[in-house]
Amino acid sequence: MKMYTPISEIMTKKVITLNHTDELETAERLFKTHKIRHIPVVDGKAIVGMLSYTDLLRISFADAVNDDDDTVEALVYNMFTIEQVMAKKLISVPPTATVREVAQILAIREFHALPVLEGRTIVGIVTTTDLIRYMLKEEAEA
Fold first, then answer.
1. Dist CA 78 CA 5 (whole Å)
2. CATH topology for the 7-141 domain
3. pLDDT tens digits, one per residue of 73-124
4. Residue 67 — φ and ψ, nearest 5°?
5. CA angle 11, 121, 108 (to 5 degrees)
6. Which of 82, 96, 100, 142 has the highest CB neighbour count under 10 A?
7. What backbone phi and psi angles, to 5 degrees, belong to 79?
């Protein structure tokens, strides 16, 4: 397996982002529409946090109560802001980071996604799913 492949070769380049002032309902809609689990949160072009679908589930009782009841969900979401729910202490990687380096960070820090930054600009996101797909592809080609 090519562990020194740059992460830029396997990262997701079309990054869906949230503005730090967006509503949590907007976040949930993006998670469900795009079938993703992590969304970087930005203030202008600067990344200020990462919101995961699990973060929403922690504050929402709607999924446990009734999938059809949007009223409960809206009430819970109106009690919090994205900035209150998102992870703020981020670790990012440059596009030149290797698959090995990213795998080590994800394993040690128990993250499931890392923003990929070029300077202060987000150019991608790499997730545990991206790494698994890469490993499966490499194994199939071996």
1. 43
2. CBS-domain (3.10.580)
3. 667 788 899 999 999 999 999 999 999 999 999 999 988 999 999 988 999 9
4. -65, -20
5. 50
6. 82
7. -85, -15
Question: Which of 57, 50, 122, 34 lies closest to 82 in space, CA to CA?
Answer: 50
Look up tokens 């589930």; give the residue: 57
Beta strands in 26-130 (DSSP E): 38-43, 46-52, 113-118, 121-127
Please calculate the CA angle 118-133-42 and round it to the nearest 5 degrees: 35
Q: Which residues contact 73 (CB under 8 A, 6 or more apart)?
A: 25, 28, 60, 62
Q: What are the extents of the domains in the chain?
A: 7-141
The Cα-based distances of 80 to 60, 83, 128, 139 in angstroms read: 10, 8, 28, 44
